[in-house]
Structure formats: structure tokens, C-alpha cells
Amino acid sequence: MSGFFKLSGSGNDFLALADPEGSAPAPGREQIRAWCRRGVSLGADGLFLLRRRGDEAAMEYWNADGLPADLCLNGTRCAAQLAFHLGWAHDRVRIATAAGSVAARQLDPERIALDLPVPLAAGNEPRELSLDALGKTWTGWAITVGVPHLVLPWPESLAGAPVVPLGRALRHHPAFAPAGTNVDFVRFPKSDRMEIRTYERGVEDETLSCGTGILAGAAVGLHLKRATLPLSVLTQGGFELAVTGDPADPAAGTGKWSLAGDARIVAQGDLLAAAAVEPTPPAWS
Question: Counting Cβ atoms within 10 Å, is residue 63 exposed (0-12), middle (13-18) or buried (19+)?
């Protein structure tokens, strides 16, 4: 496959390959890493391969480092948008991921909603952790939303949050070895509003949005009684997303939550041979 799509899910950007026959080979790690490298190739936070499965679709997802991840919710919203664009489904579609099947709905031409299990199910309650990094002790909450997250409630403006240096240190903290974790800095200016910035594992940098991070932050906010549903969420990319669901008893693990927000196809083209060339970084990089 040489044809690609470029998509953005509230600022989280992806390359996508479409396989209508469902039998094309997946790209290799080196290819994915090269294609996702910014400034040299197309650049993206990750890549997914979308395969047609009758009236449904299946996605395989890799982060920019070329390693697979079980779940990327912004990527899944983009996968649903691509399935609608390709005519594989209309208005509603199920997307199979490595973390399970997800139902997606098209709210309007630029917004996709996912219906998801409540992340605060029994056995997946947020765990309070105190971790040493950068010469200080930080208190956060670990929770898995398909992939691991550490949520750090931030008391002040996120403008001054040390997302990259502290996020990198906590992402590699021994408490999360060997796989590491994503790190979310969240603030609740009001109970129905959350602000979030995320350092993403596999991208190894801050991204403009993180769908699983939004659900992780919302889950911790409800757990700490700092948030209620519906919850409006502002991301680093400037997009507003919405988390809705039944706020009565989220810890019961029943019912569904919904994550809705922008998901758009921004480009379509062909991958050329030069897109897969990955130069060796200089020694000082």
C-alpha cells in the first residue's frame, strides 16, 4: 500500500493506511518510525492500519516509535471518520481494537463520538502513588484506560506545568517498568470542566491531545470528587471534547461513557520511497 491519509483527532495527528480487502501486510517498525518522523517525512503522533471487516472495521495502531499500542481513542475516532469517508459504514460503525471493540457515532461532519465502558470498573480504581522525580516527590493517580496513565492533578495554570521534563521522568519511572506510562497534567477550574496536557509514551513528547488521557483524567476527577459528568475538556491543541455518561455510580463499572470531539481527514496522497528514509541523529541529539 502506498496511499495514505492524514487525520487529526483534536490535534492528535495520525497517518492512516486503508485496507478494504482486509489482507494487506502491516508495515514494519522501521517504516512506521520513519514515516512518523517530523521534519524528515510526513510526521505524526502515530499510524493506524484500517481493515474492512464486513459492516465493521478493525484497526491496528502503532505509536510514532513504531511500537504497537492496544488503544488510542483519538486514533479510534479518526478511524471511524475514515470508515465513514470511505463508505464502509454510515453514521455508526464498530471499530475492533487490541483492547476490544468500540462503537462509534458520527455527530456531524467533523465530530465523532465513541461509546466506551466506564473506566472506573471494579479492580481498575485509580491508585494513589508518591513518586520521586526531578528532586521532588509528586503525588499522582495511576489508572489503565486501555493503556497506562499517571494523572497529576495540577493546582495552578497548566501554562507553567513542566510537561516535558517531568512527564519524561515519570514516564520512565521504575514504578512503571518495563512498559512505562503516559503522564497527564489535569486541572479542574470547575466541576464540569477539565484542562489537560499530556506527555505520551511512544511519542516521547507532549501531544496536542490524548483521548485515553482525557478519560483517565475524568475518571480520577470523579474519584476525587473534583469533577462531574458531563465534563467539558480543553486540550493543548485548543479543541473542546466532551465526556458524558452516568455520573451516579461510576465505580459500579456498569453503563457507558462517551468521548466526543473533532476528528477530521486533512490530506490524502501517496507515500514515496524518500518518506521511509530515516537518517541517524547526530551525537548531540
Answer: buried
Is the same domain home to 210 and 146?
yes
Q: In a 3-state reduction of DSSP, which class is residue 268?
A: strand
User: Is 36 annotated as catalytic?
Assistant: no
Q: Please give the residue that has the higher pLDDT: either 184 or 121.
A: 184
- Residues 91-100 pLDDT 10s: 999 999 999 9
- Based on the structure, what is the number of domains in the chain? 2
Domain assignment present for 167: yes
Residue type, 60: E
User: 210, 222, 234, 241: which one is catalytic?
Assistant: 210
| CATH code, domain carrying 178 | 3.10.310.10
In angstroms, rounded to a whole number, what is the distance separating the alpha carbons of residues 230 and 246?
8
pTM over 0.90: yes
Within this chain, do residues 131 and 249 fall inside the same structural domain, yes or no? yes
Is the distance from CB of 215 to CB of 252 less than 8 angstroms?
no
The tens digit of pLDDT for each residue in 122-144 reads 677 899 999 999 999 999 999 99
Distance CA 49, CA 75 (A): 10
Alpha carbon distances (Å) from 21 to 28, 56, 64, 84, 88: 19, 12, 25, 16, 11
**Residue 260 maps to a domain:** no
Catalytic hit among 18, 72, 196, 227: 72
Active site residue 78: no
CA 134 to chain centre: 26
